[in-house]
Write a structure and sequence with these properties.
Oligomer: single chain
Radius of gyration: 18 Å
CATH architecture of the largest domain: Orthogonal Bundle
Largest sheet: 3 strands, antiparallel
CATH class of the largest domain: Mainly Alpha
CATH superfamily of the largest domain: Winged helix-like DNA-binding domain superfamily/Winged helix DNA-binding domain
Number of helices: 7
Helix content: 55-70%
CATH topology of the largest domain: Arc Repressor Mutant, subunit A
Number of domains: 2
Length: about 150
Amino acid sequence: MDAEEPWMRGLHADTGYLLYRLGLRSGQLFNTFLQESGLRLRHYAVLRYLAGSEGALQRELSTRLGYDPSAIVGLVDDLERLGMTERRPSPDDRRSKIVVLTEDGRAFLRGTDEAGRRVTNDLLAPLDAAERETLQALLLRVVDRP
């Protein structure tokens, strides 16, 4: 694509489109890095969320990660089959199950930390450290907005 084409200049002036393109590129890089494990970025997001919690109801995962509830069921099924998560009875409601990270899931995440940093560094290579910090702060402000 020629960035000088008038229609491209219009798209490059559209912040929403640029964020979309950045998301696509980020997803492609992370999915390539995860390919060997058989997981995708959505699985990784569930694991990362669970790593920072004592477990979560599937509906909480859906809300927090912004995934459709039916997608969460499949993702948790996949992760449970791989031994990375397990469903346990909720202490507050025995009819509900919480999803918790297993030791295998924690080990997987520890093993991916460096590769994940490399993917992020590749994605953000055009930015210096201060610009990366600014981008991170701005994205958090936008994402955390009610």
